[in-house]
Amino acid sequence: MRSASKNTLLKVVILGDGGVGKSCLMNRFVSNQFDEHSFHTIGVEFLNKDIEIDGETYTLQIWDTAGQERFKSLRTPFYRGSDICILTYAIDDKTSFNNLEMWRTEFSYYADVKENNQIPFIVVGNKSDVIAEEREVSQLEMETWCNENGITSCIETSAKNASNVQEAFKMAVQHWLRLESRADKNETDINDTVDLTKKSGDNRMSCCVGSSDD
Amino acid sequence: MVEVKEEEEKKQVAEAAAEIAPKEDEGENENESLPTISESEAENEVSSSSDSDGEPERDKALLIGVAFNIDELYTEILYIILHNVGCDVSLEVGQNSLFSYAQEAFRIPNNKHRQLMDIAESKQDPELMINVEVIEAKELKSKDSNGLSDPFVTLYLASNSSHKYNTSVKSMTLNPIWEEHFALPITGNSTGDTLCLEVWDFDPAESMKEKFVTATSGQHENELIGRASIPLNTIPASGMTMWYSLDKKHKATRQGVLKVRVSFSSGKNNQVAQQEHRHMRKIILLHELEMSKVAPHWWCGNFSSQGEQLLTQHIAQSGLWPTEVALCSYSVYADVHQKHPLSLTLFTKLLEKLVKPLKTEDISEEELKLFWEATRKLLPSCFSVIRKIRKKSTTEKTIMKQVIEVMKILNYITLLEPNGIDLFPSTLYPWITSREDGPNCDILSTLKEAVCRGASDWLEYLIEANSRQNETDLVKLQNLIQLIHLVRTDLQKSIEYYDKLFLDHLKFQYAKCLYVFYQARIATLCEPEVTEICKTLKKLHYVGYSFNSAPVNEDPTDDPLLEGTSLFEVYLTLQRFVMLGKGLCPAEYNSFHIKNFHKWFHGGVTQWLDIAVYKALIRIEKAVELDKLVHVDTSVKYSSSAVDALTIFYQVKTFWQQLNWPDVEGSYTFIAKIIDDICRCCVFYADKMAAKVDGLGEVEDIYDKKFEITNEWCLAINNIDYVRETLEPFTRELNMEEVLKQIGETKGPLDADRCKNTLENVISNAIDTVRNKIIELLEIVVNKMGPSMKRLLIEGAELCNQDSNSVDRLMMYVDNNLSTLHRELNSENFNRILQILWDQLSEILNDIIQNNLEKRRPPSFFANLHTTLNIMLGSFKNPDDCSSCDALQRTEQILKINGLETADLIHQAYLELANLFEKSGETKYGELSFRCKFQNDSLIIEIMNARDLLVMDSNGTTDSFVRIHLLPEHKFIGVEKPKTKTQNKTLFPLFDETFTIKLSTEQCEMEGGLILFSVKDRDMLGYNNQYIGEAFLRFSDIPRTDQDLSSLPQVKKWLNRPVTMDTNVIKALESRQGDKQAREFLKKYKQRMGS
Ligand SMILES: Nc1nc2c(ncn2[C@@H]2O[C@H](COP(=O)(O)OP(=O)(O)OP(=O)(O)O)[C@@H](O)[C@H]2O)c(=O)[nH]1
Ligand SMILES: [Mg+2]
């Protein structure tokens, strides 16, 4: 049971190819557990968890979706109304990285958000614990892709050794906060589009955190 | 040519179908097309299948297949008329009328007629025979002594009585059965002749041979039982079977009865006669059809009396057997039927007669060939009935009748086992798709094809008729719905009317066969359209999901909504269709492609779920708008919108039940989605409810503006709570358990557990979210009360003593509001709001205290505030609960402290230290030993020693002394503060000094009285004594006794120093900067702390 409080509720959706470790990420974040033999998710899984940032508590309602293609129509209904979208790939799986574009499009379509850059996407490259020989996507590639797609937050994580998992979710919320405050400002600021792109470019490097053991 | 016919048929079917198909712009055509169909059909049937090569159609029709020369045949007819046999000839129809009938039927000009008549008249008389079957006799008179007879029958023609015929003898019976046949040649004119029948009793004395001889030689040794005579002119040409009375001369009584069948025959060649008969029958039939203009499908075997007469005469004069006649008729009718459809009943009747002989009797190869030839001609019309079963120009009853006949015909044919006969040549049956080499005689598979073909023609027409170019998706969907609906209706009809017929007659599963066809066709039709539409569904835009925002004012008749709804209708229609299949074809069901129809709709489900939520949100908004905020009835504490909200949720549930999604993985996921959606609807409802009551309760009176809790506010809270309470039971109704069970079965218990956890998380998340929403509302309410409470509290503090009115008002205010809350809210929410109220109150108090401390308000202000607060708390209904609120208690404590006069406050500081030190263990400052007692009005203190004192001097020792203070200071003014001598250079000083302090009785019994021992290090000069530490002893701990001090136990106390300024008391003192007493205390306090 959640605490009786008026925490800000944030709906978080985790997307990415089947097997990149979405469910593991969520379980690591929520219950600090890791299951080596995790099953493919059926449709969706749901957990919630409070997270504190700058003294404020946020309740994250996390929807972990099934990445396998056959579940497409089962997961898409959950996109609408999300506050944060975590695009996930595995650094030892290039295909999963290449599919990020597909995931982003799918999300944007079904979430029914008017402008792309209003969606708080963050990109997470999971399985950063794998040995260097197995790595297929470099951190630079990730950053470049994010930069090209106007995504300002990205991070490499490992659900296995817990590295950067808390940080990833924290980053997602902070990212949301930035967008919120910007959105508030935008209500008076008509000429915002130029501003936004400029800002996102400037902020990019500061928000990208690489995995520590790289 | 066959192709043309196919086209024609299609057109008819199509026209028929147009009637039930949805109409677009064919309103007027309908009336025209209806009556014309039957007419044009007749024409089609005749003209399209006959070879038109210029000859006048009638003559040509006559000639077809007639190997005979018409003239010869006509001559034969005339000859038959001339030699009419039987009784019925001249009575019924005159000879002349027969001649003119024949002339007309054969279209013979007069001169030719006369010419042929001459030939007929000149021909010699026909060789006629009378056939007699002696069948049986009954009730014969007995002639023997044993009461029985041994009868036999003798028969002869009167004109030739010497030529007698005898039956065998049946011994010892009065009811003999013979069943024996005789043919008696007729000589000369038959009309005057008589057939004589005599029944005799055989004389057993004679030998068989003798009997025969005597019988024939006319001697009368045998005894005559009776006789009957039949004039030949009483016998109809078609023959007859009759019982005749047996008479005997001079005997009035009947001698018994004899059953005989008599008919005429000729010595003609049977083959020739049959052929002749067929031609004659055909010509006559065609003539009659033309004359009577009987409608197609109507003629069922009734000729005019002339026609009948001619045919009967021919049968009689040619000696044709009934089976032969039936076969001739069958062959002729089948042939004519091809061009002019006759009633199918005609054929079933003939087949009924033919089946047995064909199976049992010795039928010639040629006759058999004739039969199958005819059957081949007959069958296309049968299958045509099946194919046109949906034709609307004919009534249901007519079609039913026809189908029954077809069933009978096909059943007879099946009984005859047409093995090896090519019944269904591809020229006649181009629509048979599965063909193997060799003759095709598979009736059931042809029937199946006919059934499918009929359904197909009909369906394709419907599709064609409904398709327009550039249809919108919406129209496409509606067409699909309509189409499936029509198909379902057709199936239902087939079940209702035809299925049993097919099953009973042919063991053919008609409806099932149809279903198998339809399901495949509908699947190929729907799948691409549905998947395509699902892919390109227009999005439903609305912001309903984000909190605090209403659906944007979108037109609910907007396309995406309609489109989604229509798509859902298609889904439901298909669902029903598939259910029908499950019942009809339980065995095949699993192999049906359409079984998985739901997969085509995958994309649509998202849209439907969205629509369900969208509609729910709109309805909720409306329900809140319409809510008059009064109790639904006296027994409940919520208003209409809460009930409406539930109804709205149940509509979502109904949607879910209708969807009845067959796939468990999907079901599970959609349940999670629905629960989450419902939660969002709840939140939306809560927000709308809050917004509705938001402005309520602000009242203004002569004193001020304030917020009064209203019933409406309470209703709003209750409503949301009511909805929240129903959330969990609601989710249980979504069939979760079953779905989880199935996941367990198909995917294993681990997956089922994970799904279960997720669902439970989603549910509790939903419940928590709504609960927090309620708390949010309660907080809003309390916040609204805040300003009034604050103002009243301050007023109370300022004016407490002068004007108690404000306290009364405060009490009234709180009391009023709380009683409203108590009355309207359930206890859970009431307790919640109290809790929030306490928190809020202590926040307000803290604020006031802080503010007023800054303003240096006198302690009396805080004391008043404290009193006011206590009054207020007293008015709360649940004083127990207030103790549970830590914040309020702490605040109250602060208030109490700040309300104290400085001297009391200082003493409070000492008391707190005393309490604190009480708990302390060993310290670095050392330990003091002493003994104390009260005796009379004196306090006697013996300072004994100290140990382990803190090193204070540079030489590693300490020069210590102890001073005794009595506290509270202001109560002991003028009382001495004795001190010991200084014990130099020791950490273990022995003081061993006793002091007696004289006190008043009140002082001795001073509540909270304390002894403070302060131990100091004496400075060389005595100016700057250093503080080592202190210890306290409560007056209440000092014994009152006359006992010697030395007999009392030593008291040992570790020395301590104050350690913190951060206590409420010290802070309160610090806030009294202007107070000298406080200032000095603090100064000393800091010294005691050491630096
Ligand atoms: N080495 C390594 N393996 C991981 C990590 N995270 C997950 N895995 C493994 O990757 C596999 C798949 O993880 P899941 O979390 O089930 O993948 P998923 O993204 O949820 O997959 P779907 O539910 O099918 O969409 C599991 O065998 C995990 O043990 C990680 O950080 N490092
Ligand atoms: Mg998963």
Automatic annotation (TrEMBL), chain A:
Recorded GO molecular functions are: G protein activity; GTP binding
Give the E.C. number(s).
3.6.5.2
Q: Which reaction does it catalyse?
A: GTP + H2O = GDP + phosphate + H(+)
**A GO biological-process term:** retrograde transport, endosome to Golgi
Q: Where in the cell is it found?
A: Cell membrane; Cytoplasmic vesicle, Phagosome membrane
Keywords carried by this UniProt record: Cell membrane, Cytoplasmic vesicle, GTP-binding, Hydrolase, Lipoprotein, Membrane, Nucleotide-binding, Phosphoprotein, Prenylation, Protein transport, Transport
This protein's major location comes to membrane
Q: Which cofactor does it need?
A: Mg(2+)
Q: How does it sit in the membrane?
A: Lipid-anchor
> Which EC class heads this enzyme's classification?
hydrolase
Residues forming coiled coils: none
What GO terms fall under cellular component here?
cytosol; late endosome; lysosome; phagocytic vesicle membrane; plasma membrane
- Listed PANTHER family: RAB FAMILY (PTHR47981), RE17845P (PTHR47981:SF1)
Protein name as catalogued: small monomeric GTPase
TrEMBL record, chain B:
Taxonomically, which superkingdom?
A: Eukaryota
* Keyword Cytoplasm applies: yes
> Which residue ranges does the record assign to the MHD1 domain?
568-689
Spell out the GO cellular component terms annotated for this protein, sorted alphabetically and separated by semicolons. late endosome; secretory vesicle
Q: Which SMART domains match?
A: C2
Query: Which family would the database say this protein is a member of?
Result: Belongs to the unc-13 family.
This chain's protein is named Protein unc-13 homolog 4B
The lineage is: Eukaryota, Metazoa, Ecdysozoa, Arthropoda, Hexapoda
